[in-house]
Amino acid sequence: MALNTRKTSRLLTPFAQQIRRYAAPGEGTVPPSKKKYVPTSGTYPVGFVVSSTHVGVKASNTRFDDLALVASETPCSGAAVFTKNKFQAAPVTVTRDMLKRRGGKGIRAVVVNSGCANAVTGRGGIEDAVKMGEETDRWFDGEKDDGLGSRSVVMSTGVIGQRLPIQKILSKIPAAHSTLGSDHDHWLATARAICTTDTFPKLLSRSFTLPSSPNTTYRMAGMTKGAGMIHPNMATLLGILCTDAPISPDPLQSLLTAAIDKSFNSISIDGDTSTNDTVALLANGAAGGKPIVDTSSPDYAAMQETLTSFATDLAKLVVRDGEGATKFVTIRVTNAASYTDAKRVASTIARSPLVKTALYGKDANWGRILCATGYAEGVDSVIPDQTSVSFVPTDGSPELKLLIRGEPEAVDEARAAQILEAEDLEILVRLSEKKGEEAVYWTCDFSHEYVTINGDYRT
Amino acid sequence: MALNTRKTSRLLTPFAQQIRRYAAPGEGTVPPSKKKYVPTSGTYPVGFVVSSTHVGVKASNTRFDDLALVASETPCSGAAVFTKNKFQAAPVTVTRDMLKRRGGKGIRAVVVNSGCANAVTGRGGIEDAVKMGEETDRWFDGEKDDGLGSRSVVMSTGVIGQRLPIQKILSKIPAAHSTLGSDHDHWLATARAICTTDTFPKLLSRSFTLPSSPNTTYRMAGMTKGAGMIHPNMATLLGILCTDAPISPDPLQSLLTAAIDKSFNSISIDGDTSTNDTVALLANGAAGGKPIVDTSSPDYAAMQETLTSFATDLAKLVVRDGEGATKFVTIRVTNAASYTDAKRVASTIARSPLVKTALYGKDANWGRILCATGYAEGVDSVIPDQTSVSFVPTDGSPELKLLIRGEPEAVDEARAAQILEAEDLEILVRLSEKKGEEAVYWTCDFSHEYVTINGDYRT
User: Fold this and answer.
1) B187 and B290 both lie in a single domain
2) Contact A330, A382 (CB under 8 A)
């Protein structure tokens, strides 16, 4: 039996060195190669305050902040998108109900714990999530009770099938409220508090303008965490985006839904979808200017472009931190009969273990890319002798053609090896010679470390 | 950058020891743990002869047989099922056309080379596949030319995007014909010749009877190869089944199609589907008895049961030899609203990298199983609070319940660890409390060795 050999090999030094430390979120020791993705300053939206607090949701976490609070100083518009998994965690159910009940109006805060997902926890879990929201509300003075219940978005990430230590969490919400602040250090610490197996906090901010108020500067900030799931956790993709632009709830939801489709729903670490995935967007209008009240204005279109681009940059950070990832791979499928076909092909390539292990091995294996293109489900428009595959280097040098209209090229192996040495790579699949629809997906490779992380024993 | 660390770690001894030797098919050194799956005798169908011959399709292969020939002594019925990949290899196209042209009648042989897949090779590749079939035909004397062209099924497996060394292959077909024989050693050598990255040859045989001829003994033999794809190969699932029962082409095709759906189409190594996958079934009627000419007879039903069971046992051998596999996992989904729903859920669990790495880590991670159940695409009938998950040991001891109607059980970790130590395991997912449809899938785990094998540089 090979089992003993295998068991031993997993404990050997090279893997041990690569293993992430799971004990606590926000470990703080960012790997040197990831430091460039952690901002040292930012431009944050007016009227939002944030904080991070230590609870110790996991008993083993005695040091690191695991409670995050993001609040608007005034009631604001809120929207969210959720996992499509049939097994939805309690905070997903509670937040969805809350936004529906309020019509996305009068939202005050997002409260997040890491360390426990509050998933598959039955009725008790629902009650815990409701309590987290209500206790958060209580600290925003002067809010008149409008009979619509909680005003807080609730998120949880961490171990599945365990109840939250709810009293510990509730007892720390006053501290979370009293330490709210708006400077860069507050935002970065808050972004760190939502992490689980992430190796670096994921935070972005930017300024923008809208056509109807060209002299008004708006700001947007967002934090996210990923990526992949780590046992016995079901780690989760969470995102919290805030803007001081004035946007009504209805257009806010449609802006977010469209932006997520091309960003957070266009990334893949391992193809698994967690029970807790949630991305929320708050807009408090604190910067003034003309409100966006419907989907027909030029402001709406401009806002869509800004939001989609911003959400895409945030989502890419999740891929950068994919469990065990050594590569950041853009998969671009062009000249497709429809956007749906293009996205299905891109998604199938992004999820193929054979493509992902070849990328880990720095191997110009166009055969596996072609093969995944050919078995994408629900796609009828793939025609072998019209399909071309190239590697596109991200340094601006010319693409390396691997397959042209179904015919293999004689590949310059030295050039291929050079391209594959880089961390970043684009795989370009043209489904025809005619102009058509395009979809982009972002993914990472499958490494030994992925197996080590996800095959590890519970501790 | 972590790249150098990673690169070094891949060259360390524990992996090097586990790496399969890719240089040639039929290496012959079966790992000790797999020896029990290689038969030392068999009962083979009357009127079939087989052989294996060395060609050296890969220039580096100077020793191992890589050409297999399976022939019926008389013209027989033939049927086949093929990959659904859009990029179909030349032998797939040529064989499909041949069977259609002949209506599955008058088939004489199956000719297979390993070492080169003849895939994505354009018009020249088609011509090569046609030549392989025609040259094979030529050696079956006395065959009158009926104007319908070749009578041979052609299969190839190995590197993609390269032309076959067709002259070398054609020059060895006379030798393949002259060494045809029907004893166990012939069958085993032939099963070995179709292998690529397989660690053991996969051959089964059995006897059976049919209701209308209770005193006639029929025999069936089959060989197959898998599993997963190895760079720069696109290894392929091939299967060749022969029986001396008398079955007309139409019922033969429907028997095979139904059997494959519950056997070869219910296994997953890595979720990738190759360009060359082909399973062929020949029936020469040499054992006599009443012919099966339609789908309505009791003989047909009995034959279906025998064939499905036989094909399932063959398909399971492919999973036993999954690249890097340390576990053999049966996924049984019961009490479903439909067979399709059950199969989609089973397939989704079987393909989840998180489930597969947890199994490698011997981890009772029901959360990942539940999560995969919840994101199975196209399934509307999953209801969280009616879903139960158990581990079923294969030693006959009682099941270990992990989740009952959506509520987590307090898991006996010692018992779970004991169950997960075994090579074989069944995961049982009950989608409701009501009797319903059932689907079974077989899969293996994802190990470091899988990544090593598939991330390896081309040599």
Assistant:
1) yes
2) no
CB atoms under 10 Å from CB of B414, counted, come to 8
Burial of A163 from C-beta contacts in 10 A (0-12 / 13-18 / 19+): middle
Q: Give the pLDDT of residue A81.
A: 92
3-state secondary structure of A211: coil
Q: Respond yes or no on whether ipTM tops 0.85.
A: no
CB contacts of B367 in chain A (<8 Å) are 119-120, 160-161, 232, 234
Residue A459 in this model has a pLDDT that exceeds 50: no
How many CB contacts within 8 angstroms connect chain A with chain B?
251
The enclosing domain of A429 has a CATH number of 3.10.20.340
Q: Rounded distance, CA B400 to CA B415, Å?
A: 8
Q: Is the CB of B367 less than 8 angstroms away from the CB of A228?
A: no
List, as ranges, residues 298-357 from A with C-beta within 8 Å of B.
Answer: 326, 351-354, 357
The yes-or-no verdict on residue A33 having pLDDT over 70 is: yes
For the residues A102-121, what does the mean pLDDT come to?
93
Same domain as A221, residue A93: yes
Of A120, A367, A374, the CB nearest to B370: A120
The pLDDT of residue B450 is 74
Give Dmax (Cα) for chain B: 72
Q: Which of A53, A157, A224, A236 is catalytic?
A: A236
Residue A157 at interface with chain B, using a CB cutoff of 8 Å: no
Answer whether A86 sits within 8 Å of B234, measured CB to CB.
no
Is the per-residue pLDDT at B57 higher than 90? yes
pLDDT value of position A32: 85
**B459 annotated ligand-binding residue:** yes
Say yes or no: A248 and A341 in one domain.
no
pLDDT tens string A160-202: 788 999 999 999 999 999 999 999 999 999 999 999 878 899 9
Our count of domains for chain B comes to 2
Q: What is the pTM of this model?
A: 0.78
Q: Do B86 and A366 touch (CB under 8 A)?
A: no
User: Which residues 42-71 of chain A have a CB within 8 Å of chain B?
Assistant: none
Instruction: Name the residue with higher pLDDT: A253 or A226.
Output: A253
Mean pLDDT in residue range B224-228: 76
Q: Note whether B371 contacts A6, CB cutoff 8 Å.
A: no
CA-wise closest residue to B153 among B242, B66, B86: B242
Is the Cβ of B459 closer than 8 Å to some Cβ of chain A?
A: no
**A214 and A311 together in one domain:** yes
Q: Which residues of A touch B8 (CB under 8 A)?
A: 14
Q: Averaging pLDDT over each range in A275-279, B230-234, B347-351, which range is the top one?
A: B347-351
Under the banding of pLDDT at 50, 70 and 90, the label for residue A292 is very high
Domain that holds residue B407: 328-456
Q: Which of B321, B352, B378 is where one domain is finished?
A: B321
Domain shared by A426 and A279, yes or no: no
Residue holding tokens 């598959």? A120
Nearest to B311 by CA among B170, B418, B173, B204: B204
Q: Are residues A274 and A185 in the same domain?
A: yes
Catalytic-residue membership of A236 = yes
Q: Do B60 and B164 reside in the same domain of the chain?
A: yes
Indicate if the pLDDT at residue B403 is higher than 70. Answer: yes
Give the separation between CA A242 and CA A110, rounded to whole angstroms.
10
CA–CA separation, A75 and A103 (whole Å): 13
Residue B280 phi/psi, 5-degree rounding, is: -115, 150
Would you say B90 and B147 are in contact if contact means Cβ atoms under 8 Å apart? Answer: no
**Are A361 and B457 an interchain contact pair (Cβ–Cβ within 8 Å)?**
yes
Q: Would the annotation count B413 as a binding residue? A: no
Residue B54 lies in a domain: yes
Stretch B252-278: mean pLDDT: 83
B199, B347, B348, B354: which to substitute to probe chain A, counting the most A Cβ within 10 Å?
A: B354
